[in-house]
Every structure is written in structure tokens, then in C-alpha cells.
Amino acid sequence: MTDKEKPRIDKYLWCIRVYKSRTLATEACDGGKVKINGERIKPSRPVRLGEEITIQHGIIKKVYKVIGFLEKRVAAKLVINYTEDITPKEEIEKALIAKFVSYESKFRDSARPTKKDRRLLQKYRNK
Q1: How does residue 1 score in pLDDT terms, banded at 50, 70 and 90?
Q2: Which of 30, 79, 80, 89 places its Cα 20 to 30 Å from the Cα of 14?
Q3: Nearest 10 degrees: CA dihedral of 120, 125, 126, 127?
């Protein structure tokens, strides 16, 4: 398969549902949030099998491995046939902690949390 037949990285990220639109994927590539093998890339770069794509989402870095190519966007259940999420567990835990801290600080100086909010706070504290 030649480089012309391989999908662009922005289209690939949109197809595997990392970004909601190709425009967002293109902006992420231009902004340096998407790297392949540690190097910044342009949105038009073709994707190759076996490459590791690192994406900066806020404070966490998600890592995906390319398993197959797509022509168009597929259902979320079918994405596992084309990519493998190899994000380290530390990064996933970092995301949970950040979610908890931002949720807890929401009620620090303001009104009391609702019953639902208290249950969620207890759930995160007990983990």
C-alpha cells in the first residue's frame, strides 16, 4: 500500500473517534498535541501500521497503536478492530484524580452538594 492509499492522520483520528470532527483533529495536529513516535506531525501525514500515536488530552497523554486502516468513520464498537489503546495505567489514574479534584473543589466555597453529588464524592474518596 503506497502513501497515497494510506489515510491522513487527521482523518484517521476522526475515524477512530478520538476527535468529534476532522477540523478538531487537524487543529490538534497543527497545535502539536498529536505526535507519532515522539515527533510532531502535520495533519496530512499518512498513517502506517504499527505506529504509536500519542495524543495530549488536557493533563493526560493517550497512546494508540495503529492496527488497521479505515475509509470512513465507524461505530464505537468497531474501533477496536483498527486501533489498540495502550495508554499507561498511571495516565488513566491521573485523569480520575483530576476529575475528582475538580468535582470536589466545585463545592468548597459554594452551596452544599446535592444527595447525588455527595454520593459521587464518597465514591471517589473510597477508591
Answers
A1: low
A2: 89
A3: 90
- H-helix or E-strand containing 55? strand 52-57
- What pLDDT is recorded for position 110? 65
Entry pTM: 0.74
Residues 63-87, mean pLDDT to the nearest whole number: 91
Burial of residue 120 (CB within 10 Å: 0-12, 13-18, 19+) is middle
CA distance 92 to 79: 19
CATH of domain 1-87: 3.10.290.10
How far from chain centre, in Å, is Cα 30? 16
**91-94, Cβ contacts within 8 angstroms, sequence gap of 24 or more:** 91/60, 91/61, 91/62, 92/60, 94/59, 94/60
Enumerate residues 6+ apart whose C-beta is below 8 A from 79.
16, 17
